[in-house]
Amino acid sequence: MPQDFIFSLVSFLGIVISGLAYDPLDPDGNITIKWDILNWTSDGYEGTVSVINHQKYRQVGHPGWTLSWTWSGKEVIRSIWGAQATDQGDCSGFRMATIPHCCRRDPAVVDLLPTMKIDQGVPNCCRGGLIASRLQDPEDAVSMFRVRVGMAGRSGRTVRLPRNFTLLAPGPGYTCGTAQKVRPTRFLTPDGRRATQALVTWNVICTYSQFLARKAPACCVSLSAFFSRSIVGCPACSCGCRGDAMDRGSCVEGDLESATPRPTSGDSKPPLLRCTDHMCPIRVHWHVKHNYQKYWRAKITITNFDYLSNYSQWSLVVQHPNFENLEQIFSFNSRPISPYASFNDSALLWGVKNYNDLLIQAGLLGNVQSELLFHKNTSSFTLEKGWAFPRRVYFNGDDCIMPPPNAYPMLPNKGLR
Ligand SMILES: *[C@@H]1O[C@H](CO)[C@@H](O)[C@H](O)[C@H]1NC(C)=O
Ligand SMILES: *[C@@H]1O[C@H](CO)[C@@H](O)[C@H](O)[C@H]1NC(C)=O
Ligand SMILES: *[C@@H]1O[C@H](CO)[C@@H](O)[C@H](O)[C@H]1NC(C)=O
Ligand SMILES: *[C@@H]1O[C@H](CO)[C@@H](O)[C@H](O)[C@H]1NC(C)=O
Ligand SMILES: *[C@@H]1O[C@H](CO)[C@@H](O)[C@H](O)[C@H]1NC(C)=O
Ligand SMILES: *[C@@H]1O[C@H](CO)[C@@H](O)[C@H](O)[C@H]1NC(C)=O
User: Fold this and answer.
1) Which of 113, 251, 274, 402 is the most exposed place for a label (fewest CB within 10 A)?
2) Mutate to test the pocket of ligand 6, among 380, 381, 382, 387 (most ligand atoms within 8 A of CB)
3) Which of 88, 402, 26, 65 is nearest to 220 (CA)?
4) Whose CA is closest to atom 13 on ligand 4?
5) What is the pLDDT of residues 288-298, one digit of tens each?
6) What are the structural domains of the chain?
7) Which residues line ligand 1 (CB under 6 A)?
8) Which residues pair with 395 in a beta bridge?
9) Is 164 in the pocket of ligand 3 (CB under 6 A)?
10) Helix, strand, or coil here: 326?
């Protein structure tokens, strides 16, 4: 079966490639740290730092980003607005009236929580470190803080670039390059009648790799179709094997009446999964539901198998050639991912605010659903050879494990025709 072999080879390569930083659906995706020096002070400078999400569909979720770096010299953070350093460090060498906010050589900074926000004139701050993806919510795709740096150079020639940037967003997964001097950022006054510019601007580009982010995948895909009785489940051991549950936390047989929510302090606690053969916290099911004369209909169900996690503002990326002609989508939002590419075959789907944008923990309500109505393109539409199933699925920006193509639901009586 050479065709099957090529199919498996392609999906195998897909898995290998997705392990690298390059993402074919978002080749330029990155998080850019922009460091704008706006003012020289008596012993350093004042500026703003922006964490800008240039990724189409990968957000920074709870508990938010942590940005750290290493100073090149003896710099300290005198003051900071709209964020805070997690550790002040040893400031015993300072005898002045005002003790610096942070004296560490390698400060780590986190966003303030919304409840800690006092108006300090810092836009885009104080969202608990959450950053939306660019397609989902471009207005919230940036997070900013203002900082006054002391013991630093006081001109563009003597000031030194911080080194060794590390971005946790929220866990590992991003690799940051070295800071580069770039063209100074320009700012328009609110009335738009005057432009000013930063004295110095540095950029740091951080790129994501799922491979670095976690060892096991977190999501798998199952398939079914109206013409086939069998449901093709997620491949066994997609995210782990039942027997190895001890590695990834415990697993619970059947329904759990109530689970104690995970403490909000972090994601360090392992998931408490419902026992399944795939052992993934998330399963995406694609059902080919109807075949009309001019249209066909698919149903998507996302199920949460983790008793300890809610996914707020979840997102799904689906690649299928018929997204070129998506007629209607019910109860999810959607946006084409490459609307200007010659062929537009993938879409970002996400929940409707205050309706199903929260994918609740495992249990009776732990799923969200949508139906998609596609306009048929008669030259390509077919129910054969798995064409009606998605080519690739991402949940919250991470690749989901697909069943092998030779297991896809088949049209009945195939051998008789
Ligand atoms: C980072 O994203 C910006 C904005 O999309 C893009 O212009 C730039 O080329 C990207 N850089 C890298 C290294 O991918
Ligand atoms: C620059 O510094 C001056 C005085 O130190 C201050 O009044 C001004 O607000 C500062 N501007 C910015 C953009 O920080
Ligand atoms: C860079 O940062 C990482 C993590 O903060 C740290 O472990 C490492 O020692 C740093 N390297 C240098 C050269 O400062
Ligand atoms: C998930 O959200 C629901 C509704 O807001 C809440 O009742 C529940 O405690 C949350 N569960 C966890 C694990 O945070
Ligand atoms: C991409 O798809 C969207 C809707 O799914 C459609 O509005 C848009 O015209 C398509 N773009 C191209 C280039 O086909
Ligand atoms: C139908 O599919 C063919 C081949 O995939 C493509 O060239 C053509 O542009 C499509 N037509 C429409 C209306 O999308």
Assistant:
1) 113
2) 380
3) 402
4) 261
5) 999 999 999 99
6) 26-208 (2.60.40.290), 214-407 (2.60.40.290)
7) 28, 30, 32, 54, 205
8) 316, 398
9) yes
10) strand
